[in-house]
Structure prediction request, 135 residues.
Amino acid sequence: MELVERGFESFLATGEPPWEMFDEEIEVYDHDTPDQGSYRGHVGVGRWVEVWGAAWAEWSMEPSEFIDAGDSVVVCVRMKTKGRGSGIEIERQDALVYKVHEGKILRLDYYNSREQALESVGRRQQSGKSRPSPR
Prediction:
């Protein structure tokens, strides 16, 4: 869980993915926009961040909770965005699931809700270790 917390905080502070924490074969699946497909490897992560960021004129993300789900960590975030083309402002709770293997992040799934993320790791409700974000 600490690896994911450090990586997430690093990304928010620098805007740059924590490359050293990602497995070279990392896979990213964005369930927010299902037709986007998947992104693979470090190049894929960079492309996903670029595509995702291009939709927003402004955005902020605040982690609210980190949940230990065995070999995965669920990160619940409060998201605030402003659409680049529409100017529409959105505030919602999203969640990311990081799958960790041998000290590296192997997979990242982005969901629209905490419930979707928990279901993806086989939990209908949170159980196990959880802690609020240190922010």
The chain has three helices and seven strands. Strands lie at 22-30, 38-40, 56-69, 72-83, 89-101, 104-111, 130-132. The first helix runs from residue 2 to 14.
